[in-house]
């Protein structure tokens, strides 16, 4: 360890308890970091593409998750290594930003690191490599822009959107009914989309799952599904033209926040208090009734007495509805969330054409459907499936599909999938490399090689000969000057992704390249790792 | 530089072939565990809990067995999960679904060893499952329109379901009970309306279905033991001390005399409440919560039968049966709907006194009283009856019916085999494997019955080669028999759920090529 001395020859203490820390410096540090980054990418590599395999993850509590969604795998893996954590972050940010391509971005970063390792061994300075990568990523970024296609669709012609969502879903376990799920996702997005402003608020789409039934029973409900039942078993199970009071105050006697005591010292007080209490309940119910509500949805619980009074006045009610759901209901029915009974007025009530309770299976599972709402902008995707894991995985897949559809509405440029965009970029970057003088040229060329990793992994996962397939496709692209040639993962017989209808969003791809490059640059710049040694 | 450590200390990671092996082995072990319970001659398992008292359960219900196991293998958990879902959704076939998934994986293992890619196997399985489902759809019988025949179908299904359970000795008796109970529901799948009361003593044959409603409670002291034309008020209200619910209220007095006054006021309040209840013009009052001695006495004085502490289910059911509503406030008697029944009386079953409500307004609910030699026996009987009730109530909704005794599996296997012959490419191996896995179910049934499965299955296959065959395994005589003559039927919904869930589970496990187990969460206390 390095030591510094002051003018009297006493050592400065730079690191506390220096001996107990391990420290990696220089090339060793970079190599170690690259190795761990690669290890993470290697785990995800086999999950890429339509024929990618799943990972089974057992959480600390023993729950099992089966998925091939990159972000989910990394999140649940509980990694301990700092660099690996960076990769996890990388995939998460892709998930937040785009929602799809979370596996691809990690594989891409992994292969960039792999190429960087080779360059480091040849003695090229890491910063030069990083700069070269930066230049190359910009070239690729622009090239993607050039090969992108505008993608025409409208609210009436949703077929192209469905096709895109199907590409996303085909890599998931749900690809058995990708067609119907893709349609559901597109319809849901279109229902909440604001085509003028090109904005989609995904919060308005609620994805709800219930174990049982089969995947084909998954449906899109123009309305809200709440996993609750009526508060009293004898309340009506179906309400037409419901006027809904949405309350955030409990049907209970008031509980002032300030501490107080009500002292009872005479019989009269005892009796007035009792009457007050009864009146209080009565007033609450009456106020709902007066406002013209035919259904009460409440965030809190009810007192038994209040419950019966509601029942008695023929006012069905649902209790313990979560805050998020309450908000969605308010949006969908056009009602206002009312925090106090006094403020309940007829204008603040939400409207829904049909509210019904539906029972499932042999157990006591009931859900409340709120349909034909005044404002149909809030929708619910209701997933059925064989088991809990299947539902969870379907939820994740639907989320990806929703994100893709949203991205297309925001920006309707697309590039073709199946690795074709990467191959095309790789060719462009390779060609551009020769124009750069200096050491960066090598880094740019390495970037081009790294881009090949994604089609390579696709081919490998599909059981094709990776090198043969890739070189064949590459030469085809150059020969025919056709940037749509990709890996034929599904064994359809053509390499032209246009015919296979496999495409991805432009921003998704661009984001992948930018994010991966950024993280790799960051990793390359680290030359000193100080960590507490094993305890 | 060696490969950096990625995961936390105790986490493990298994990759590729090893991962697949681990999940295959785990899943097959689970399937083999429940395999011997399949079919009418299946054996039971004893489960001993690790909790206090080491309570013992004897069962051959797949879902119950799997629920009680502590499993560490993630793939095995997938199977436990599907059996649980099968139980929730259709109630029966919990063993079959696990056995089928296990067999599918067993076949898949062979294919993987023969260097066929898991994805190819999956696509083959999918095609096969689709084809099998269609084959079943072609053969279903729907007797919904003909009430007589439909009832006969239900009877057959109930008998078939029960024949693999502990109740098989008296299956006719119980099948009748179950069918009667379900028919009363008139198409609703709300099994809560059917109450099952278990009373040790007597024999299984003594079990009976009661048209009325039985509440496992005692009548208060000094109150009438028998009421004709009862008017019942079902309530959920505090009958101990009616607390003041306004927050922060408390009693503060300065002399003993005041305490006495307040006590009187409290009593007065209760008396008023009781009076209000009595003013409803009732002669029976059932409360979910406790009734203290004082109000009980008041009720007794007024000649009202008061029943306290009926649990929530009991209350709901009672409200359902008598047509009354559950009340919590008593200020306006005219708007509260009272329940009615012809007769309330105390009856004795074994040594216990129960309250029997007969001649109720709504005939939907009913009670099945199970009698049996021991609590274990009763528990198992309840589970079996529950299975039968579930299947029946589902069948009432989806009235499509198939024959049983391995017949559907053979039909599916035949269709799938034909598909395999027509399909070019590697997938055909997977499709063939699927049909072999299907045949494994009748094989297991035969094996469990101690029959020569190889011989029987071969005969069955030959028999099924003819068009429209109705042959299946007749376990009783140990030969191939005509299932439609023997009256062995199964619900289509159950079979379909078995087929689809098992395929889905197998597919899920096949797709895995890496298992990452996180370090177990550290428990702060003990352990």
Automatic annotation (TrEMBL), chain A:
It catalyses: ATP + H2O = ADP + phosphate + H(+). Its main location: cytoplasm. InterPro entries: Chap_CCT_epsi (IPR012718), Chaperone_TCP-1 (IPR017998), Chaperonin_TCP-1_CS (IPR002194), Cpn60/GroEL/TCP-1 (IPR002423), GroEL-like_apical_dom_sf (IPR027409), GROEL-like_equatorial_sf (IPR027413), TCP-1-like_intermed_sf (IPR027410), TCP-1_chaperonin (IPR053374). The keyword Hydrolase applies. GO terms for molecular function: ATP binding; ATP hydrolysis activity; ATP-dependent protein folding chaperone; unfolded protein binding. Gene3D superfamilies: GroEL (3.50.7.10), GroEL-like equatorial domain (1.10.560.10), TCP-1-like chaperonin intermediate domain (3.30.260.10). It is found in: Cytoplasm, Cytoskeleton, Microtubule organizing center, Centrosome. The keyword Transferase does not apply. Keywords: Acetylation, ATP-binding, Chaperone, Cytoplasm, Cytoskeleton, Hydrolase, Isopeptide bond, Nucleotide-binding, Phosphoprotein, Ubl conjugation. Pfam families: Cpn60_TCP1. One of its GO terms (cellular component) is chaperonin-containing T-complex. Component of the chaperonin-containing T-complex (TRiC), a molecular chaperone complex that assists the folding of actin, tubulin and other proteins upon ATP hydrolysis. The TRiC complex mediates the folding of WRAP53/TCAB1, thereby regulating telomere maintenance. As part of the TRiC complex may play a role in the assembly of BBSome, a complex involved in ciliogenesis regulating transports vesicles to the cilia. Component of the chaperonin-containing T-complex (TRiC), a hexadecamer composed of two identical back-to-back stacked rings enclosing a protein folding chamber. Each ring is made up of eight different subunits: TCP1/CCT1, CCT2, CCT3, CCT4, CCT5, CCT6A/CCT6, CCT7, CCT8. Interacts with PACRG. Interacts with DNAAF4. Interacts with DLEC1. Interacts with SPMAP2. Belongs to the TCP-1 chaperonin family. This is T-complex protein 1 subunit epsilon. It comes from Sesamum alatum.
UniProtKB/TrEMBL annotation, chain B:
Keywords: ATP-binding, Chaperone, Cytoplasm, Nucleotide-binding. The keyword Nucleotide-binding applies. Its main location: cytoplasm. GO terms for molecular function: ATP binding; ATP hydrolysis activity; ATP-dependent protein folding chaperone; unfolded protein binding. Coiled coil: none annotated. The keyword ATP-binding applies. Pfam families: Cpn60_TCP1. One of its GO terms (cellular component) is chaperonin-containing T-complex. PANTHER family: CHAPERONIN (PTHR11353). Belongs to the TCP-1 chaperonin family. This is T-complex protein 1 subunit beta. The lineage of its organism: Eukaryota, Viridiplantae, Streptophyta, Embryophyta, Tracheophyta.
């Amino acid at each position: 360890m390095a030591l510094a001395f002051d003018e009297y020859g006493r050592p400065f203490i730079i690191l506390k308890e220096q001996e107990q820390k391990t420290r990696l410096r220089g090339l060793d540090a970079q190599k170690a970091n690259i190795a761990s980054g690669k290890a993470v990418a290697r785990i995800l590599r086999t999950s890429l593409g339509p024929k990618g395999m799943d990972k089974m993850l057992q959480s600390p509590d023993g729950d099992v998750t089966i998925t091939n969604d990159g972000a989910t795998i990394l999140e649940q893996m509980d990694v301990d290594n700092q660099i690996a954590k960076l990769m996890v972050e990388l995939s998460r940010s892709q998930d937040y930003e785009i929602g799809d391509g979370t596996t691809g971005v990690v594989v891409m970063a992994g292969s960039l690191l792999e190429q960087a390792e080779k360059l480091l061994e040849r003695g090229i300075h890491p910063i030069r490599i990083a700069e070269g990568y930066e230049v190359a990523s910009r070239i690729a970024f622009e090239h993607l822009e050039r090969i992108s296609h505008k993608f025409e669709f409208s609210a009436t012609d949703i077929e192209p959107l469905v096709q895109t969502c199907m590409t996303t879903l085909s890599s998931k376990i749900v690809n058995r009914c990708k067609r119907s799920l893709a349609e559901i996702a597109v319809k849901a997005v279109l229902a909440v989309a604001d085509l003028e402003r090109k904005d989609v608020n995904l919060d308005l789409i609620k994805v709800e799952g219930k174990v049982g039934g089969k995947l084909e029973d998954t449906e899109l409900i123009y309305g809200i599904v709440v996993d609750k039942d009526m508060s009293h078993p004898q309340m009506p199970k179906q309400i037409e033209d419901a006027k809904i009071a949405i309350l955030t105050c409990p049907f209970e006697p008031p509980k002032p926040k300030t501490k107080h005591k009500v002292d009872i010292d005479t019989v009269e007080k005892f009796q007035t208090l009792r009457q007050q209490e009864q009146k209080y309940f009565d007033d609450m119910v009456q106020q709902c009734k007066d406002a013209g509500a035919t259904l009460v949805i409440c965030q809190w619980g009810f007192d038994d007495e209040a419950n019966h009074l509601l029942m008695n006045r023929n006012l069905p009610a649902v209790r313990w509805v979560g805050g998020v759901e309450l908000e969605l209901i308010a949006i969908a029915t056009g009602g206002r969330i009312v925090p106090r009974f006094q403020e309940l007025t007829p204008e603040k009530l939400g409207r829904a054409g049909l509210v019904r309770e539906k029972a499932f299976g042999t157990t006591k599972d009931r859900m409340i459907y709120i349909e034909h709402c005044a404002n149909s902008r809030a929708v619910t995707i209701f997933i059925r499936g064989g088991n809990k894991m299947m539902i969870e995985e379907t939820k994740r897949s639907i989320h990806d599909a929703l994100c893709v559809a949203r991205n297309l509405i925001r920006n309707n440029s697309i590039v073709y999938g199946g690795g074709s965009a990467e191959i095309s970029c790789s060719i462009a970057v390779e060609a551009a490399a020769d124009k750069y003088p200096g050491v960066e040229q090598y880094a740019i060329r390495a970037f081009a090689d790294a881009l090949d990793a994604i089609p390579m992994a696709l081919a490998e996962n599909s059981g094709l000969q990776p090198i043969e397939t890739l070189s064949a496709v590459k030469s085809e692209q150059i020969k025919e000057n056709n940037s749509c040639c990709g890996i034929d993962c599904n064994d359809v017989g053509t390499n032209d992704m246009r015919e296979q209808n496999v495409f991805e969003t432009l921003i998704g791809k661009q984001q992948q390249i930018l994010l991966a490059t950024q993280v790799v640059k960051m990793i390359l710049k680290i030359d000193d790792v100080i960590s507490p040694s094993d305890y | 530089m060696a490969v950096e450590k990625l995961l936390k200390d105790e986490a493990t990671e298994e990759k590729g072939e090893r991962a697949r092996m681990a999940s295959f082995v785990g899943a097959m072990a689970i399937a083999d565990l429940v395999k011997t319970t399949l079919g009418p001659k299946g054996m039971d398992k004893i489960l001993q809990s690790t909790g206090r008292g080491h309570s013992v359960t004897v069962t051959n219900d797949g879902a119950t067995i799997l629920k009680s196991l502590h499993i560490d293998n993630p793939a095995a958990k997938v199977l436990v999960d599907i059996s649980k879902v099968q139980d929730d959704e259709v109630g029966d076939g919990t063993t079959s679904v696990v056995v089928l998934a296990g067999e599918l994986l067993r076949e898949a293992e062979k294919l993987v060893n023969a260097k066929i890619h898991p994805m190819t196997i999956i696509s083959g399985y999918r095609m096969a499952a689709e084809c099998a489902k269609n084959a079943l759809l072609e053969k279903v019988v729907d007797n919904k329109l003909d009430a007589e025949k439909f009832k006969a179908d239900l009877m057959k299904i109930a008998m078939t379901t029960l024949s693999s359970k502990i109740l098989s000795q008296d299956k006719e008796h119980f099948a009748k009970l179950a069918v009667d109970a379900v028919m009363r529901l008139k198409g609703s799948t709300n099994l809560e309306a059917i109450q099952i009361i278990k009373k040790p003593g007597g024999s299984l044959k003594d079990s009976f279905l009661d048209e009325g409603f039985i509440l496992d409670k005692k009548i208060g002291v000094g109150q009438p033991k028998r009421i004709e034309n009862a008017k019942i008020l079902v309530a959920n209200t505090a009958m101990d001390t009616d607390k003041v619910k306004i927050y922060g209220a408390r009693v503060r007095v300065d002399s003993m005399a005041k305490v006495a006054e307040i006590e009187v006021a409290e009593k007065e309040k209760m008396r008023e409440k009781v009076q209000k209840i009595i003013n409803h013009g009732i002669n029976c009052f059932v409360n979910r919560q406790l009734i203290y001695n004082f109000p009980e006495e008041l009720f007794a004085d007024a000649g009202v039968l008061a029943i306290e502490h009926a649990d929530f289910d009991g209350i709901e059911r009672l409200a359902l049966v008598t047509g009354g509503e559950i009340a919590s406030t008593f200020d306006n008697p005219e708007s509260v709907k009272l329940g009615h029944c012809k007769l309330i009386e105390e009856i004795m079953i074994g040594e216990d006194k129960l309250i029997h409500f007969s001649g109720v307004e709504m005939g939907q609910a009913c009670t099945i009283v199970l009698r049996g030699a021991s609590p274990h026996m009763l528990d198992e009987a309840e589970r079996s009856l529950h299975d039968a009730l579930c299947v029946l109530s589902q069948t009432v909704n989806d009235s499509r019916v198939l024959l049983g005794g391995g017949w559907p599996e053979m039909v599916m296997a035949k269709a799938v085999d034909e598909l395999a012959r027509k399909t070019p490419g590697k997938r055909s191996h997977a499709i063939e494997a699927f049909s072999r896995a299907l045949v494994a179910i009748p094989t297991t049934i035969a094996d469990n019955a101690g029959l020569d499965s190889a011989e029987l299955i071969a005969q069955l296959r030959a028999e099924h080669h003819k068009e429209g065959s109705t042959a299946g395994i007749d376990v009783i005589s140990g030969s191939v028999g005509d299932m439609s003559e023997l009256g062995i039927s199964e619900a289509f919904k159950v079979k379909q759920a078995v087929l689809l869930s098992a395929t889905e589970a197998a597919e899920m496990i096949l797709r895995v090529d890496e298992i990452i187990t996180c370090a177990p969460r550290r428990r702060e206390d003990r352990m």
